[in-house]
Fold this protein.
Amino acid sequence: MKKIIFSVACALALTSCGTVGLVGAVYMNTTEPTAVTSNTLGTKVGQAKALSVLGVAAVGDAGIEKAAKQAGIKKVSHVDKKTFSVLGLFTKVTYTVYGE
């Protein structure tokens, strides 16, 4: 029985190995590129955010469309993703959209 529990625990622990992006199990405060287009770098900047608490409840609209509309961007040049997380208990994700 202990071998089965150990095997299941190992399998669950290894399932995130194929994820793309940065992972900080205890603390995370990173910014990474998400998308880029051939459009020239614009002067407008828009942001959209979402929050997760305890991994149980998540709220917010962190969509690129929302961030672009908020700044009046018609042509997106690139998008950055900022992630702040503490122990996975509190996580805030912010997408920043740049363009004209």
The helical segments are 2-14, 64-71. The longest helix spans residues 2-14. Residues 22-99 form one domain. The two ends are 60 Å apart (CA to CA).
